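[Discussion] Sanity-checking designs against the backbone

I'm trying to build intuition for which residues belong where. Below is a structure token string of 258 positions. I'd appreciate it if someone posts a full sequence so I can compare it with mine line by line.
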């Protein structure tokens, strides 16, 4: 399997607090890496580092690309779209095309937009105003826009979190299909362990300043404990004990793999 993304010893400190500590991993072509971890663990920060929006204090990110410049597709955690925004879904997707400096589209570009909308099952929404679409429809349009630039790597930050369970499953299954059919590397952040377990090839589990990465079966071995750690039901004590155990395992380097 060919690598498409290398994250190499990244360190990020905000206001004296270390958010990402010596984080290193790779993503391969055709691989979906699920990222899990509690609120504030640094998951979105990691994606922003990959996007070049945050410069780490140490470390580097490299993307292997057949294009002149590596291309990253990104679907952010939240997006404020005015319900009355006078832009059709089709035009919204076309904004994702690379080098859009002309005010018109070539036939090739128009075909491309249509193809992306067909692939994401949004072509029937093409003429509707983007602000009037449902949450699930909007997310699929955002995905179509991110794909329009033929990304080497696709980053999804909780892009299904506001959808109902069926729509979440449909969107993640679509992303999984695109990952394989386009042979691109995908990083998707999710709090839904069921979806991550079903669709991720590997999992990166982040806690503040600590991480483990491994095959999905390996990381999900103690799914119940993991779930407690991510969604603590009663007290901080249970998180602390699970965190302590995970940190101990990291220290032992028993399940730390690259
Ligand atoms: N630009 C910034 N300046 C200062 N602190 C920041 C900045 N961006 C993020 N942080 C802090 O870094 C920590 C990690 O934030 P991040 O958004 O990466 O968490 P997350 O894992 O994505 O959480 P969530 O699951 O809630 O989305 C948080 O404590 C946040 O307040
Ligand atoms: Mg986040």
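Best answer:
Here's mine. Compare freely.
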């Amino acid at each position: 399997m060919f690598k498409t993304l290398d994250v190499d010893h990244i360190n990020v400190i905000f206001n004296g607090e270390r958010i990402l500590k010596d984080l290193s991993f790779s993503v391969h072509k055709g691989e979906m890496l699920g990222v899990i971890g509690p609120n504030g663990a640094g998951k979105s920060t990691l994606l922003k580092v990959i996007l070049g929006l945050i410069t780490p204090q140490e470390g580097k990110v490299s993307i292997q690309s057949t294009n002149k410049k590596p291309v990253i597709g990104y679907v952010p955690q939240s997006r404020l779209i005015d319900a009355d925004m006078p832009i059709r879904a089709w035009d919204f997707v076309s904004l994702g095309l690379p080098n859009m400096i002309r005010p018109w589209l070539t036939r090739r570009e128009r075909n491309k937009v249509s193809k992306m909308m067909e692939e994401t099952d949004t072509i029937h929404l093409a003429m509707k105003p983007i602000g009037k679409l449902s949450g699930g429809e909007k997310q699929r349009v955002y995905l179509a826009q991110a794909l329009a630039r033929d990304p080497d790597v696709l980053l999804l930050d909780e892009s299904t979190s506001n959808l109902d369970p069926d729509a979440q499953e449909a969107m993640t299954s679509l992303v999984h299909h695109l990952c394989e059919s386009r042979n691109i590397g995908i990083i998707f952040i999710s709090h839904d362990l069921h979806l991550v377990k079903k669709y991720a090839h590997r999992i990166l589990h982040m806690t503040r300043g600590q991480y483990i990465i491994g095959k999905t079966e390996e990381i999900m071995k103690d799914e119940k404990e993991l779930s407690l750690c991510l969604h603590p039901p009663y007290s901080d004590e249970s998180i602390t004990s699970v965190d302590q155990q995970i940190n101990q395992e990291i220290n032992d380097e028993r399940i730390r793999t690259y």
